[in-house]
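--- STAGE predict ---
source: upstream dedup step, 1 unique chain passed
mode: sequence only
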Amino acid sequence: MKKNITLLIALVFFSYGYSQFNSDAPWMKNLNATKKSSELNEPLKFQEIVEAFNQYWKDKDHTKKGSGYKPFKRWENYWKHLVKNDGALPTPEEMLEVFNQKQELKSSRADVSNWQSLGPYIHTNTGSWSSGQGRVNVIAVDPNSPTTYYIGAPAGGIWKSTDSGATWSPLSDNLLQIGVSAIAIDPRDSNIIYIGTGDDDAGDTYSLGVLKSIDGGQTWDSTGLSFSDTRSSINEIYIDPIDNDKIFVSSNKGFYKSTDNGVSFTRTLNQDLDDVKLKPGNSNIIYAATRNQVYKSSNNGDSFILASSGLPSTGGRIVLAVTSDASDNLYVLSADTNFAFQGIYRSQDSADSFTRLDDGTEDLFGGSTQAWYDLAFEVSDGDRNDIYVGVLDVYKSTDEGASFSQWNSWSAPGTATYTHADIHMIRDINGIIFFGTDGGIYRSTNGTSTEDLTEGLAIGQFYRIAVSPQTSSNMVGGLQDNGGYAYSDNNWKNYYGADGMDTAIDPNNPNKYYGFIQNGGGLYFSNDAGATLGGSIGAPASESGNWITPLKMSKEGELYAGYVSLYRLESGSFNKISQPFSSSLDGIEIDPLNTDIIYTFVGGQLYKSEDRGVNFTNVETFTSSFITSVAVNSTNNDIIYLTTSNGVYKSMNGGVDFENISFNLPGDAKLVVKHQAFHPDNPIYLGTSLGVYRLDDTSNTWETFLINLPNVAVRDIEINENDGNITAATYGRGVWRSDIPVVSVASDLQLESVRVDNNSQIVCSSVSPKVIVKNNGTDAVTSFNIEFVVDNGSPVSQSWTGNLDSGGTTEVEFPETNITGLGEHNLSFEVLLSGDAFEVNNVGSLAISKNNSDTVGVNEFESNNDNLLTLGTLWERGVPSGTLLNNAASGQNVYGTNLAGNYTDSSISYLISNCYDLSIIESPMLKFNMAFDIELDWDFINVEYSLNGGESWVILGSASDSNWYNSNTLPNNVNCNNCPGAQWTGTDSTMKEYSYDLSNFTNEESFIFRFNFVSDQAVNKEGVIIDDLSIEGNLLSVDEFENAPVLSLFPNPSSDIFNIQWRNANNVSYTVTDLAGKLIASRKDVNSSENTAQINLSNFAKGMYFLNVNLNGVEETMKLIKN
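--- STAGE serialize ---
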C-alpha cells in the first residue's frame, strides 16, 4: 500500500492550494441550483461564489452573532489571493508544478534561517469577551490508551497528546499544512491512524481524501480514497469494531467502504452526506444523514435504504447521535432551510420511524442561522437522558430531550461551563464530554463544568502582527475569531475578542497596543501591553472597512486607518483625511523617511499622497491580480517594493514605473513584502502561502528562508533590525521568529523612545520631555544634539556630551516647557550626529493631551470654555434630544454619549475631568447630575481616578457607598462580561445628583477622574447624560495649607493593600480594628520622612474595619472596606 511520499506531499499541498467553500452554505446551494448536472463537478469561479454570497446577504442582517457571515469572509479574504487570470483557483497540476519549484529552490540555495515557534501555546484572558486560541474541528481518543488524545485543526494539521491533553505535539509539520476534519484510531493497533483531510466546516482547506499512518502519526501515506476534484470534503471516519480491516468514510461525495485496511474503497451510497453513525453493538447497522434525510444500512454499509419516516420533509442540515444506553435509538438534530433550529427527533426502532422529542418552545441554536458551519450533537453513551446540542453555545437536556436549558455562554469566559463560541464537535468518549470549538478543545468530566485543554496547541490563524521597534519582546496580533493577542515578558494575553485583525504599536511606548476587529468595526487599545483593555474607539459613522481593515503607525506615532477614505486617529477618534476611494482600502504604507508620503491600494490600484494623505494620485494599476502589500526602502524612498497575488515588483522612481523581480520564485501566492533597514545589501523578505523567501541587491535569485518553519501560509511579517530578527504571523500555526543577518556600521544613533514624567498621558501644566538615545554603531559617541518642537513651533536644541559606548543608551531631559490649549499636542524630536549612517532612525514624536486645571466650582457645560477632554467617539457636549434623556439639570447643555439617539455597540469612551489640586481644598466633594438609559448589566458607566497623569486608573468608590453606584455585579457572570463590580447600569432617566467624598485624596496635587462608559457587542440604548459637574469644598488659606497635617487613604475599598499618605506630620502611628473592636494591625513611630505607609489586609476576611491614625497628636478615624 505504501505510496511514493513525494507524490503524497504534493497531493497534500493541493489541499492548501485550492478550495471551494462549504457546499452546505445556503448561497452555495443557490449557486449549484443554477448549474446543469454536467457542470456540478467543474471548478467554480471565485467571483461566482462571491457574487452568490453577496446576493444571499442582500436582505439579511450579517451583524447578528451566529449569522454565518463571518466564516465566508475569512475564506474569501484568503483565497482571493490565489485567483488566476481566468478567475479560477489553481488546478492540482499547476500546484504540483509550484511545489516542485519550491523543492528545487530549497535544495539549491543556502538557507540561514532558524525559525522557532512563539505560540501562542497558552494565554491569559485579560479583556476578551470570548477568549480562545484556535479552531478545533475534530477530537479523538485512542481506544487502547484513554490518556492519548488527538485533535484536527482546519489549517494547523493533526496534534497528539499522551497525557490527557496536558501537553500536545504536532504530527503534520513535515507535510505541507492540511486541514483535518476526521480522525479514527485502530482499536487493535494504536499505531494505525486514519485522517480525513480538508476543512469540512469552512473550506479553509479542501480534501484530498484519507491519509493513513502506521507509526502513531510520525509519517503519513495516501490510501485508496483520494479526491481529484475541488468540491470534496470528509466529515467522519469509522473503523469497524468487529473487523478492523473495514473502514467507513462519510463525505459530501457519498459513503465509502474499505475491506482491506484502506488500500481500496467502494462508494456504496452516492449522496451528499453530513454525518454517519454506527449502531452501538451492531456494526452491520449504519446510519447516514444527508441535509434532510436519513439512510440506513443493515449489511455493514454494502447498501442503504431511505429511513426518514417521521422526519421533516425539508431541511438544511442533519446530524446524528447514538448511545449504548439505548442501542436501538437513533437521535436526529435538524436545521431548517435557513439553518435555524428545526427540532430533535428520536427513533426507538433503529431508524424505522421517528418522533419529535423537544416541544418546540426553545431555540436550541440561540438565534443562530449558521448551522451549515457548526452543528454539534451528542447523547451521553452512559445515560440517554443527557443530550447536548451545540451551535453558538451548548444546550443540555437531562430528560432525553423533553426540555433543554442553556448550558454555557460563549460571552462569559469566567463561568464554570465556558467554551468558546461556535461548536464544531461534541463527543462522549469514555464518559468524558469533549467540545471542539472555534477557540480550542474543552472537556467536561462531570457535566457541570469544563476544562480548557487548548494549552500547548499552537494552531492560531493570524491575520496580522505588529512588533515594537524598540523591542521585539513586545508584539500584538489579530487571530481568526479569537481577537487581539498581546505578547510581552514571554507571555500572551487575549485582550479583546471577535476576529482580531490589523494591529499597531506606538513607536514611543512599546506597551501601547492597538488592534482592529473585523471590518474596522472597533479599534481596541491597551496601555500596558495587553495586561488590561484600555478602551475602544468606534468606526467612522458613515464608512465601513474591508474584512481586514488596514491600520498603519508612522514612525512619529501617528495612527492611520483605511476605510473607504483614509483616516487618522486624533484625540481619541478617527478624523477623515482624504476623499473617498472607489471602495474600501486594502492597505496603507507610510514612507519611513518622509511621513508626508503615504501609499494606499485598492484592488490592483496603487495610490500615492505627498501631503500626508490629503490628496492622492493613482500611480500604477495592476490589472491581472490584487495588490497584497507595499514596502518603502528605509534608506532610499525612491525605491518601492510591491507584491500582487502572483508577483513581486520594484520601482526605482517612487512608483512611477515597476519592474517584475519575481525571478525564480515559485508560483504560490505572494502575501507580504518587507525591507530590512540598516543593511547595505537592502534585503527584502517575502511571505507567501508556502513560507518565507529572501532577496537582496547582490543577486537576482531568491533564496528560501524556511528552516524549521512549517509549510503554512505567512500572512504578515515584521522585522526588528535592532534585535536582528524577523517575525512571521502564520494562518494556522501561530507566530514564528528567526534571526536575520545584520551588518554593523561605525556611526549610528537611534532615538529609541520619548516620554514625559511618569509616562503621563494627560498633562496638567508644564512638561519635561525625556529622550532615550541608543548607540547602534560600533564607535563610541561623545556628543550630539537633539532638537525639540511643540506642534509646529520653533525648535529648541539640547546638547549632550559624555561617552556613549556601542550598544549603550542615555537619557536626555529637556527643561520644563509650557503647553497651552486644551486637547492633543505633538512633541517631535530629532537627534543630530555628524556622519550618522542611518538618519531614518533619528526622529521620534509623542502625542500628549493638555488638560485644564480647575478648582472648586460648578461646570455647567454651557460654553466652549467648559469643554472637557474626551477619548473615544461617544461623548459630546450639547443639547440632549433623546426620547428619555432630553433634559439638562441647568441651562441647556450636557455631556452625553449620544445627544440625539442610541450609543454604539462595542465601545469604550471616556469623559475626562480637569486637573484638581485637592491639597488646597478642605473636605472636597465630587458632585454631578446624571440620567441614564443603559442595557442592564451588559453595558455600564462608572468613575475612575488617576494620581499619575493618566498612566493608571482606579475605580472610584463601590456600590456600598451612599449615593453612588447602583450595581455590584462582577465580571464574567452570565449576564455581564465587563462589569467591574462597581457601576451604574439599567435605566434611571430622571436627572439626579450623585456625590462622592474625596477627603481621602486631600494630599493629591494632581487629581483627575473620568467617566468610563462601556458597551458590549449587541443591544444599545440612549446612554448617559451628565451636567453640573463640580468639586465642592473650602479653599484653604495659605497658612492653613502650609500647616495642615493632611491625611489620605487609597484605594478604598481594596482587596489587600491600603495606602496612607500625609503631609506636615513627624509623629505618626496607626491602629486597625475590626467591627468587634479587636486589634488586627498597628504600627508606632512610622518613618515620617517618607510621608506614606502601607496596610496589608490580604489575610483578613472581607468586610469593614476601622483605621485610627495619630498625626502629631491629632487623631482621625476612617473606615476601611476590604472586598
